[in-house]
Amino acid sequence: MDFKERILRSYQGEFSAMGAGKSPLPFYMTYPDYQGSTGDASVVRDLEYLQQTFPTEVRKYQRKIAEILDRMDYEGSMIYDEYPDKASMWRLADSIVKVLKNEESPEEQTMSEEEWKKIEAIVQVLLCDEIYKRRHGRRKISYIKF
Fold first, then answer.
1. Span 55-82, mean pLDDT?
2. N or C: which end of the chain has fewer CB within 10 A?
3. Are the beta carbons of 21 and 14 closer than 8 angstroms?
């Protein structure tokens, strides 16, 4: 018998009044100000706040990715597929890196191919991050309010 079973067995009489098959609420749900999970909106809000702490170079890449995804943000776009194709995501990240190479600053012109591979990995992560925000943060409510 594990710890949880021993605790629940000691309170069996109290829980029988709740009805068959129901388990007790966790303690934090009984707090007067508990409002439950606030959903995707708060997650995206937290994500956007934390993104403000990114280094300036990464934020530059993030802005470029957002600009490119703005052009791809239409109904039926691959970014809204239930399971986006990994190869097409890699191709999109690769094309973003090519755009970044074309717009490179003087200090980026001396970068080696190995450094660009690292930037490509950063771009792939930022791309997935931006797609997540677009898929979950900008949902339109599809029910009618009375």
1. 86
2. C
3. no
User: pLDDT averaged over the chain?
Assistant: 75
Residues 130 and 66: beta-carbon distance below 8 Å: yes
Rg (CA), the chain: 24
Output b/e per residue, 13-39; b: 16+ Cβ within 10 A: eeeeeeeeeeeeeeeeeeeeeeeeeee
pTM of full prediction above 0.70 = no
Runs of H (alpha helix) within the chain: 3-10, 12-16, 40-51, 56-72, 86-102, 113-137
Stretch (H or E) spanning 62 = helix 56-72
pLDDT digits (tens, 9 = 90+) for 41-56: 677 778 778 888 889 8
CB atoms within 10 A of CB 96: 22
